[in-house]
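Technical appendix A lists one of the benchmark inputs used to test multi-chain prediction within the project. The record comprises two sequence entries:
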Amino acid sequence: MPKDPSIKSILIIGSGPIIIGQACEFDYSGSQAARSLREEGIEVTLINSNPATIMTDNVTADNIYLKPLTKKSIVEILKKHKIDAVLPTMGGQTALNLAIDCEKAGIWENFGIKVIGVDIDAIETTEDREKFRLRMKELNVSVCKGKTATSFLQGKEIAQDIGFPLVIRPSFTLGGTGGGFVNSPDEFEKALTKGLHTSPIHEVLVEQSILGWKEYELELLRDNIGNVIIICSIENFDPMGIHTGDSITVAPAMTLPDTVYQEMRDLAIRMMNGIGEFAGGCNVQFAVNPETDDIIGIEINPRVSRSSALASKATGYPIAKIAAKLAIGYNLDELENQITKTTSAFFEPTLDYVIVKVPRWNFDKFRGSDRRLGLQMKSVGEAMGIGRNFQEALQKACQSLEIKRNGLGADGRELKNQEAILKSLANPSWNRLFHIYDAFKLGIPFKTIEQLTKIDKWFLNQINELVHLEVEIEQFTVDTVPEDLLRTAKEKGYADRQIAHLLRCLESQVHKRRTDLGIKRVFKLVDTCAAEFQAQTPYYYSTFDVENESVSSDKEKVVILGSGPNRIGQGIEFDYCCVHGVLGAKEAGYETIMINCNPETVSTDFDVSDKLYFEPVFWEHIYDIIQHEKPIGVIVQLGGQTALKLAEKLNRYGIKILGTSFEALDLAEDRGSFSRLLKDNNIPYPKFGVIEDADQALELSKDLGFPLLVRPSYVLGGQSMKIVINDQELESHVVDLFKDFKKNKVLLDHFLDGAIEAEADAISDGEDVYIIGIMQHIEPAGIHSGDSYAVLPPYNLGDFVMQQIEAHTRKIALALKTVGLINIQFAIKDDIVYIIEANPRASRTVPFICKAYQENYVNYATRIMLGDAKLTDFDFKPVKKGYAIKEPVFSFDKFPDVNKELGPEMKSTGESIYFIDDLMDDYFMEVYSYRNLYLSR
Amino acid sequence: MKDIFSKEAILLLKDGTQFKGKAVGKIGTTGGEICFNTGMTGYQEIYTDPSYYGQIIVNTTAHIGNYGANDDEQESGSPKIAGIVVNDFSEIYSRFTATESLQEYLFNNNVVGITEIDTRALVRHIRDKGAMNAIISSENMDMKFLQAELDKVPDMSGLELATTVTTTEPYFYGDEKSPYKVAVLDLGIKSSILKNMASRGCYCKVFPAETLFSEMKAWNPDGFFISNGPGDPATMNYAIDTVKEILNEDAPMFGICLGHQVIALANGISTYKMHHGHRGLNHPVKNLESGKSEVTSQNHGFVVDKDDLEKNKNVVMTHIHLNDGTLAGLKLKDKKTFSVQYHPEASPGPHDSRYLFDNFITYMNNN
């Protein structure tokens, strides 16, 4: 069937603020769907409370509502616009739940709205474990033995029937919240109580445990007439027992023979067809018994998911884009393959490379949390590596993580304590992958590793091979290492830095030796078809092979560095900025080149930049791309710390940094020089000092006076920052810091107790400064700016204070010779405005201000960085009406043991925006009245 | 066996292009037509499919050998390919039910192969230049020797191969008490076709390629099946004649791949050699009668001429390839004969098209 002509206007529901289990992958899906529908001439209305998204941009949708995701907001929108249909499958479980609520309240029916892309009954079937089990039984799909319990007693009886080990899965929770494995009756009671409490309907499934089985996922698309295709098969490196969001995953499936794979494919199609009739995307998870090849259906998600985002990036097939077209009536055979543009969209992508996704955790932000991985997702982001073989893809994913490793192994940081390694293998946490490597290196038998981890031996052997290769390389020096061996190491994904470690020389020496030998990176295309057809899409990855497919054009080019995997303190906001940087540079007439490794993002959509290199934001990869493409320069100020920290090396290698120079970036980071700059400009700042040991700290504290803010220099999101009030606390924290950050210096600032915090974002072209917005925090100073409620514009700062903020911002921006964006944070006490810090780059608050004022500041800033425009060329017309409140959102429910107190270290995972007309607003009054509650010491 | 991987090997194409890599399988020299298969699973099924006889297979998927080899997953008694070209070969495999590693399997079955090849570059080359003859050697790197061996490889166009791979003696497959009797003309049949027949209640008698119609008819079958197989269909007058006689008889007849081409030829519709063919597990085919589409397993270098078919009033196009619009299936208007270019038995590949076997049963039922 072609497009349904009765649908002219569609409402897309977003996923709201970023939380663990629901991250920026839904910005990817929402924005892709919106673009796809607008291509068809459909009016798109979008609701999402998360301002840091591309989907809520006027480049994406016609009508945008930055409103809370509630029935009230939906009714408001439906009253205002003539909407024909709602597409709730692009905004994760949040959007689906809201759609169900609206359905139950009769809202869709009242307004005559068609629900497209999903079947409400199908959601119920898939989310209600008992319904799911019954339906699967009808479909002749094997599932785990199990039963639902709605009471404690019932749960105990079921457990007695099935026997241990067991799994407890609460109904209707996100990312497996509240679930867990139970090995014995004494653990069971506590786990059951927790599960019943976590489920919003107080229902849990008590199920047979299939711990250690192989785990797979298939991504499906189906159209209205029942055509189904499998976009991607994904194999979990970590077997059953670890939430798929916390598992290292690989595509295509590596250890499945065709017989088992096709059986799984048949089951997946049967399951999708069996839960309801809808046109759209679907994700099915399976467990396979490694000894018998028996397959069990684990779960089915009738919507676009985290895995769909991964599958889209892994194969090049734009799942959300096509799913949106299917929702409005198209059939798969009527659409074209978006990559080749000559073949059909009805086909199954085939890969001639391997992708590995490794999750990124942030346990360091959640002191006291249970770091073991299990059924509940705990990671905050992910990185994907693409390679011509598994080992290369694995190394590239590890290089993308930014956890101070250069890949897997070969950096001298391995764990050598046998007991600790064995414990880690059996109790997986964020570092198990590294400990598997360490175990092989230490000579722990293969069988033992296999037994403790239950990881498939094909994967384990791949890691074992790496360890053997390293031993071989170590016998040589950079001058004697044979060409073959060096080439093998590069083909297996080793970074020059890792090889340098093995050869005991410098990274630059390895780079020189290998380039002299002609061992160079080549770039290959992600084309959905293993090169069977010519592809039009400029989506590349690097490898060490014979042929290079990336032709460098003679246009003027700009490289935009992305922000890598999401983590606390650096999330979707920076991807928003990167995307607008790309669009701005395109408008200025440049060929844009994006480098990023985060599969959840919009920046890694192949139709955002002119050329996408899906690569680690890691020096060696970036340098080789720059050597190949020869851009006029690199934009580093949009991709957060990830991009910014590469500025020094880019500068050293004579590569032009567009916008604010490296010297200025460095000056702002260096507390000593920056304070001198403030002093020279008569700008006040809290008394501070730099110390190198605890003795110095105690000495300095006498001069500065308590309370003191103690932190290592050069860190992200206030990592390890603490306020101390006496000698004892100071000593203990300083000793801790030097333990974790060995070569770093530690800063002590006098903490302005009871001060008010504010921050300003501005654009400067080096001559003029334009302040785009000033936000006042609601909580007093001491809570990290990312974790505090903030109001745009300030709600109770006097003219005198505002004048100081504006004057200081201008002075600092100019003194730092800022070209582009700058963010400055202030503490205000007794009507004096002190400078806490200045960051000459895009900040977390920039997208918020862009959305609140409906101005595309990142675009302006980019054109200024490029020298394409001056501030005077722009006619700023911010829409200033009422106030916009930034509300931080936390994922503490994933870490029940963690203290929920807030402090100088950031803990929130996302944010939402809330508009109020005046300060008498109930919501504001409530937040304001709680302002002192969460402050910790 | 370990040291075989350090042994150099070379791949030389007819147009002079060379790729250097490492040896896998048996040390030796082998020649054939080079073509690529884009499937990500099912290497053993591909290697043992008689339709690949005389061809060197490039597997585009990154890793080969991961799950070893298993006697139950063969499409015929032994590998039929001339050689393999892979990107990354796993000597260590993981599968509880596997009987040996792929290296052991290839070695024991005398298959010569080459690994550590930029298969993507090779595929792009074949995609642009077309399928051509090639030679792999892991025993002699001398260019003169290789060139001489390469010259000995026959051209696939005009090559008759079915009689080389067909059974020498008739044999039976399935349960004797089954409701249907199917006479199978073996042009290089895959065993999973027989499995699909047997599981639907067919008792099959498999006849050698050059069997005369009268001999097949003497068994008194309910239907005829013309199998897949290697080579150029235009050379197979013996089979074309047999099919003509079946058509005259108007018995239910089903043809797959080469069998489909032979049925077209028997109706005066020509076939031609494609630029580089269709080989993979993800080929989109639309059923023009139901309007639904299916993901199919394909392996063919020749195809039935669609324009020619459209001129023939007795034959109807039933299936079309969605990527390039080539003919994927046909049926006869007034007869009980239909055929498809692709592989409904899959193995390897998706099971979307198995309904065609059910259709065959319906044809026999209605007869």
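The two ends of chain B are 57 Å apart (CA to CA). Chain B has two domains: 2-152, 162-366. Comparable benchmark entries are summarised in Table A2.
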